Structure formats: C-alpha cells, structure tokens
Amino acid sequence: MSFSSEIKEELSRQIPAARHCRLAETAAILEFCGRVTAGAKGPDCMRMHTENLAVARKYFTLLIKTFNIRLDVSVRQSKGLRGGHSFEVVSYENLSALRHVLIQNLCCKRAFIRGAFLAAGSVSDPEKGYHFEIVCNSPEKAEQLCDMIGSFGIEAKMTMRKKNYIVYIKEGAQIVDILNVMEAHVALMNFENVRILKEMRNSVNRQVNCETANLNKTVSAAVKQIEDIQYIQRTIGFDQLPEGLAEIAELRLEQPETTLKELGQMLTPSVGKSGVNHRLRKLSLIAEELREHKEESLL
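Given the sequence above, the corresponding structure tokens read:
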C-alpha cells in the first residue's frame, strides 16, 4: 500500500461529530471527484466516482450519517493497466445543501481540505522525497483551496499540469502541518520518523564530508611543508636558517603526521599552534624564494 493510500485509509475512518463539518467534507469529495447530472424524472442525480475503496466508504458513510438516504453503490473492473476496481456512489435525493455549503469555521475548513485530499490528493513516500498535492480541475477551485490551507499558516503553491491545476506543498515541515490539519496523526508520526532519520543521516554525512575535507586539507598542507623543507635542506641546508626555523624544520621531517599543536609541544621551549604555523609559513616563503632564484639563474 502506498503512503497516500495509508493516509486515505486512516482518514476514511474519521467521521466528524458536527453536522456542518460532515457537510463540508462531503461537499469537498463531491466537488473533487463527483458530478451532478439532471434527473430524468425527479431531482438531480449526484454521482461520486473513485478508484479508492476507502474514499467510497467514507463518502457513503458521510451521506448516510448526515442525510439518512438511500444510495446506489456499484463496483466495476477498472480499464487501466493496474486492473483494479472503480466505485461509484449515486444519490437520487435532493441534496442541495451540499451544493451551497459555506466554509467559514476553521473546523469546516479542516474537514473540506480532508475531503479534497481524499478525493484528489496524494503524498509522495517521504523516503523518496517531500511532495503533497491536490489536483483541481479549475483555477477557482485551486485558489479556494490555497486560501483555505493558508488560513492554517501553511503556504501552498499552485501550478498547472496538462489541463489540471495542482495545489502543492514541497517543504517537509509544512507537509507535517497539513497532515495535522487533516488529522492524519498516524501518518504524521510515520512521516516525521522518516524525516528525522533522513535529517540525521544528512547531518552525519555533512559532518563526515567536512571532516574529510579538513583532513585532506591538513594532509595536503603537511605534504607541501615537507616538500619545501626538503628543498631547503638540499639547496642551502638547515645551517643557514635561524635556530627556531631549523628546529621546526628538522622536527617536521621527523614527525610528518603530527599535528601543529603537538609539534609545538615538542619544541623547547614549547610554542603554540599559531607560532608553529608562523614558522612553517616562513620556511615555505624561503623555499619559494630559493626556487625563484634558481629559475632566474637559469635564464
């Protein structure tokens, strides 16, 4: 079962206690995966079509608990490659209340967003990436949904894909927030667990990469120092150097893998890390001057 299906299964078992919230959620499901057709001999016919059993079950339960009406339910074999089933819930009763629902209270907005997600939403597996979306068939629906989501302090964006308008969220923390708004608390905890583990792995990887880069930098610097010292030794020898520079030059050759701090502690008297670094830089400058002098003499 996909992560989206798990969320919808969880949400399908939640039935709002308040009638106005049940109306809001039912209206959203009908608006996003239903249609109203004119009745031949009576009131309009309302049809809700979905390939998700949990969504069909939720819509059926909401209508029964809110209106206590007779419903026709049909199941068909899907024509798609997956070969699943599609479900249609049909009502021939006059349900004009669903077509004129005013979504004003936060609790009703919460229910409407939940219904919209059940009907036309999806969330990617957090192991693979962070993406929440609801597919709308008109820009008006998409803007209305963005505004509703925004009332909870969540920034949803809108884009167009083929002929549909997509309301989406790509930031992990905000997907957690929208799951909380829809009251998908089990899915929220599963999402958070994955997100925390991913952030921990990323943090460890960044730290390891940083330490590796620092180690490479340190090793490269030590190699360069030794090359410069050996060049000085071959050309003018250490006897031509001031005592402090000669001492650190000999010590660095003897201890090529020792840190600057440890080198400084081996000197008599001991010298701090910055002092050792200062002497090694002077040796590098001397080596560069000797190389330049040699190049000039060859010209």
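The chain has a mean pLDDT of 87. Try to locate this feature in the token string yourself.
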